[in-house]
Give the backbone structure.
Amino acid sequence: MGCLPLPDNWVLDNGKAAMSGPGNVNVQANKAAFEAQQRTFHEKNDAIHQAIAATYAQANAASDRMHHRFVNSLKDEETVRNPGDGQRYQVQTGANPYWMNSNGQYVPSNDPNYDPNHDPRLNHQTWKKTDIED
């Protein structure tokens, strides 16, 4: 028995037919579904990791604030922020408000009507009211 010769383009034509047939459509649909499932999985996984990291950061920040408050209570200090330069300073506790100049010097006061900007004893410097931080 002999072999019949195949036309030169038979393999190419049959390969194209197989790739465009109904079986290949299923393969492509399965691949697209799998890729969509993987994207969804990765998006959910990333969201979970971000939530865990945010929770950890919040807990860590809360712990830092509690520690800072505890140390302030031991030292009898308050933390204020200079409104001029944004820096934080430790001041002796007991006044509200505190006034600060551009050099980081502060004037404590318990009088809500006191304004060191009108006090001639303070050499006519500019003083800004600060807030006590938590």
About this structure: The chain has two domains: 12-75, 77-134. The helical segments are 10-20, 22-75. The longest helix spans residues 22-75.
